[in-house]
Amino acid sequence: MKNTRINLVKRPNIKITADIFEIAAEETAELSDGQFLVKQTHMSLDPAMRGWMEPDTTSYIPPVDLGAVMRSSGVGEVAESNNPDYPLGTLVAGMFGWQQYAVCDATSARAMPAGIPAEAILSVLALPGITAYQGLFNVIKPKSGETIAISGAAGSVGSLVGQMAKIEGLRVIGFAGSDEKCAWLKTIGFDEAINYKSENLVELLQAAAPDGIDCYFENTGGAAQHAVFNQMNAFGRIAVCGMIGDYNTDTPSAGPNWVNIIKKRIKIQGFTMPDHQADWGNMAQKMGAYLMKGQIQYRTHVIDGLESAIEGINLLFSGGNNGKLIVKL
Amino acid sequence: MKNTRINLVKRPNIKITADIFEIAAEETAELSDGQFLVKQTHMSLDPAMRGWMEPDTTSYIPPVDLGAVMRSSGVGEVAESNNPDYPLGTLVAGMFGWQQYAVCDATSARAMPAGIPAEAILSVLALPGITAYQGLFNVIKPKSGETIAISGAAGSVGSLVGQMAKIEGLRVIGFAGSDEKCAWLKTIGFDEAINYKSENLVELLQAAAPDGIDCYFENTGGAAQHAVFNQMNAFGRIAVCGMIGDYNTDTPSAGPNWVNIIKKRIKIQGFTMPDHQADWGNMAQKMGAYLMKGQIQYRTHVIDGLESAIEGINLLFSGGNNGKLIVKL
Q1: ipTM of the complex, rounded to two decimals
Q2: Which residues lie across from A285 on neighbouring strands?
Q3: DSSP character string of A61-106
Q4: Cβ–Cβ under 8 Å, residues B151 and B217
Q5: Would an 8 Å CB–CB cutoff place B242 in contact with chain A?
Q6: What residues have CB less than 8 Å from A30, skipping those under 6 apart?
Q7: Backbone angles phi, psi at A161, to 5 degrees
Q8: Which residues, including other chains, have CB under 8 Å from residue A292's CB and lie 6 or more apart?
Q9: Rounded distance between C-alpha atoms, residue A218 and residue A268, angstroms
Q10: Most CB contacts within 10 A, which of A35, A54, A294, B186?
Q11: Distance from A263 to chain B by nearest Cα, in Å?
């Protein structure tokens, strides 16, 4: 098959620009025993991809090699097969990268239950789901009656965290970057939603969380971080999942002073998805059930064609996407 | 008995000054059944006392009421008794406050094994010991072969943490505020000691910890915090015990940006001694054994007379004490 792929050829200099990629065409490789060819139909764009472009080898996942296809997760169907467990037409998800076709085996593609839309897989069951599940249940460990604040709440991870926390009986407060996103958060069950660009952020948060904040799911850094940190209750737990506000700057913002960490005995813990792949089964069972029962809403922001990824990924950092950012191939 | 005590009568305005205290004389109260009178011989001065003077009721321990005796831990002996379990002469430790005599019962004074010097009790088995034990074993959970950095390492807590970590098989790096303190740290077994006032702190730390830092016991904040934070290894654990550099300022220093928390999956956890009183037995057993075997060194900085506490407590914040600060009555 003729495959078009997008390779990373330079490291980004703060912002992601078109010149760090090259578009290449090739014939797909011959399949050996056990392999199958996936025709990718939907490709996920996620904030974590910014980190994968960095040369920093001390990060949690190796960088994408220069000259290699850009790493990403996606959904597709089996188009050729040398593996009887993956017959033609099987719906699969995996880290297929920025390309039309990917040669896979059983370790690099996971079969998905037929009948779940590809957009739901990428929005709920893939990276966002495992990330939200891990941070909420394994790091924060929420208790019914507590109050949780979530930054980047209208993002794919944040919106799942909020809805799961609501199901667990928490008071849920979301931060987002536009009034439209805040309005959407209220429609999916958030108790309060605050535009983090508001001038009176501290007062808005005090009004939204009169009993203080027990749990914080951090996706962004910035103004929300400081407002929440100063209103944390004793024995508060903070899961640090993303600092999207800082990924594209060369002057990272200062964090809060640590005195409150002592006074309130706060626990702050960073986590990343690849450490917890083993949890996928638990997550999929829980989230799949929510999805079937209509307890979890999601929305998608779909852009068209492989090459739209190059400009489109920047929507994640400008806040220009309304919903899970997906490239339809 | 005639008792002299020092009451807190004002909240400190940044620095601790003599005018926030009053010296009062009174007759000790009559003992009821089960009570006994402790004649305090040694009184401990600890950084945490600064926090107890604050009106902030959201902190981990209620503030000292205005007009009440200043809170502190100490050692003494039973001078009068209505409790057969605490005969005259029994060596006891407890939160006796800034006074010569304290009326106690079995819940407010703990009998100490005879033969341990009062200074060893206050330096190793009381507040410093339970604090060091809790932070090291319950928060950091050190593993043999790891590298630990400790700020305020020449302080009563820091010096115990370092010596216990060494016994557990870690590489131990201490920060202190004078070359004399650094030299002392080497004599008690620290692998490396760094004066945090050095200009090339980052390079000194890199040389001292060529494999990076796995564990950090934070007592001070400031320059050491930032240098260590940027050299933490993946899955690093940070116990936040004190921020002594910030207690006496009205402009707390900025903390580090949180991006590293994600990349390195760092856990940062604040803790305070009163949450873990129940651990006293385990701690005393472990530390007592170390003490008997000569595996734990301590040094004391003794000042004389009840009223010397008023000026003396500021030694903790200027770094002017060399060893556990104790008032001898």
Answers
A1: 0.86
A2: none
A3: SPPPPTTSBPP--EEEEEEEES-TTS-TT-EEEE---SBSEEEE-T
A4: yes
A5: yes
A6: none
A7: -55, -45
A8: none
A9: 10
A10: A35
A11: 5
